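Lecture 7, part 2: worked example. A protein chain together with 2-(butylsulfanyl)adenosine.
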Amino acid sequence: MNSIANEINQLRDDLNRHNHKYYVENSPEISDREFDQMMKRLEALEREHPEFADPLSPTRRVGSDLTKGFEQAPHIYPMLSLGNTYSIEEVDDWVKRTETALSGQQSAIVGEMKFDGSGISLIYEHGRLVRAVTRGDGEKGDVVTDNVKTIRSIPLVLNGSGWPEKFEIRGEIVLPWEAFDRLNADRERNEEPLFANPRNAAAGTIKMQTPAIVASRGLDAYFYYLLGEDLPFDNHYDNMMAARQWGFKVSDAMTLLNDIDDVDRYINYWDTARKQLPVATDGLVFKINSLRQQLNLGFTAKSPRWAIAYKFAAERALTRLRYVSFDVGRLGNITPVANLEPVLLSGTVVKRASLHNEDIIRSLDIHDNDMVYVEKGGEIIPKITGVDKDKRQAGSQPIEFVSHCPVCHTPLVRVEGEAAWVCPNRYGCAPQIIGRIEHYVGRRMMNIDGIGDETAAALYAAGFVRTPADLYDLTPDRLLKLEGFGPRSAERVMEGLEASRGVPFDRVLFALSIPYVGETTARKIARAAGSIDRLAAMSHTELMGLEDVGPRIADSIIEFFADASNRDNIERLRRAGVQLEMASGDEEGRSDTLGGKSFVISGVFSLHSRDDYKKMIEMNGGKNTSSISKKTDFVLAGENMGPAKLEKATNLGIKIIDERQFLEMIGQ
Ligand code: IVH
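Predicted complex, written out as structure tokens:
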């Protein structure tokens, strides 16, 4: 046999095995560097010998293919839900009920975790993954094979032997807590809406259009159900243990239980032990082990009679309200926040919880010093769900919403038809000014490297920056006056400012913080108007004629340009060289494929120039940055990438892609 083919096959087998060691068993045998070297070697061989290409090769996990929209596929067996309960007694009743239905036969029960993610069905044929389908409506779902292939713990090609020629395995795609926290921290920095819980994040991620981004999010998957005609064993537990041998991640918590006492002990143990798990769980599942007994018990219209879910109660804590503070946002919105006596809730100490708006405060009827219930119920941001009125102190007063801005003391106004109160002192209220600077420099706006939230506040406090235009008057000397600023960080800011002069007009428009003009609206308006001067000259009627613009947005735009300080700011931005009109070619070929991901380009390229790659990144909705940091999503590496950069990227776990992979990512 061909020796190249041999080497390729050997590398694929080895890489698959090491993948499994790392992602499923959590016990790597080789260093990341050795792994990367093997992967590089395989990539090179596959590039030189396209005749040996295999879509299931471990090199294809980076998710370089591009899918647009999802095809749907029917489920071979419908994907049902589980009957559930919050009470141990009801689980005990279920055990007794099934025993009676099985005419008194003893039946072993399997206890397992109920993973809180997104259900997935995988089809394998001849030991190879052929299709991955989401739950969908239970009858049919979306085919998300390319995205699923990026999940490193899912075997693309099975290990060992004994698997049926064709079978289905079901499990849950989850986003581990660590990856979830990282993702949300990232989104917070970029002012993107946060995911409420890992389930939403997992479900959203698996349906993304760009597998390369899915790959960067760190999904994982646990399996709990094997289906098919010729399964190896006549019971659920042994089948799952076999699946584990084939390479699937099957939770160590899966256990055989013999009777009600075992079941109760299992519940009591996992009620607290689950908090140590790396992924979110919302309960336990109990299943009759014998497949013959499962068949006898059958299904109701919605769920199997042979299984039941025990759901954990949402965690709730009682603590004292210390005081309510009022945060002022970039657009002047006032958000009430409950400051609490610290209390432990689901493993974290909670000190603050949002009270959302005046209406919520009213409906809770919350008073000074009240004892309040805080809940996390699968959500990451704790909320106040109630007040223990029996513990209320005599004479305590109801919490009143402030009537004046807590920072600048301007009387608040309430926007008609909205629950929010707003501080109208837009240009004189510090948190609004600082918020606008933070927004302007943010990643999805001007993406000015080196200025984070703290620096924005420091620039304001030092009296250097009040409007975006002031940023362009910064000099290294001035920056060095800020605490914690050295020559390196000053230089980064100067580079970031320079690079921001190339940011296309649509993002500049979004960066200006015109109330109600969000990212998508800004893009549409910028393209339709073509330039800031044309936009400023538009009448209310003309504005209303633009896609996505209603009376509220039109009013807001008119008001913005009517303000002399805004017009002055814009003139100064123009002199600073900021893009205030769409460049020719800005629109053609634009896409959002890269979804705001940030790239560092390094090395020498052969297919296109470095500058071309920079443009392609911008044109496809990505961001160019100069240095590798935690915030970098991808390094686009050419030949001779510097070893220091390579090491930094590897240590931070940043995806390194070559030019071909990049071009595939943007569909070229
Ligand atoms: S068994 C016919 N086992 O919960 C029953 N489901 O509420 C098949 N889930 O759609 C499901 N962990 O997405 C089963 N250990 C587990 C599970 C589990 C999580 C999810 C699954 C299912 C939903 C039912």
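The chain is about 35% helix and 20% strand. Residues 143 and 302 are 23 Å apart (CA to CA). Keep this in mind for problem set question 3.
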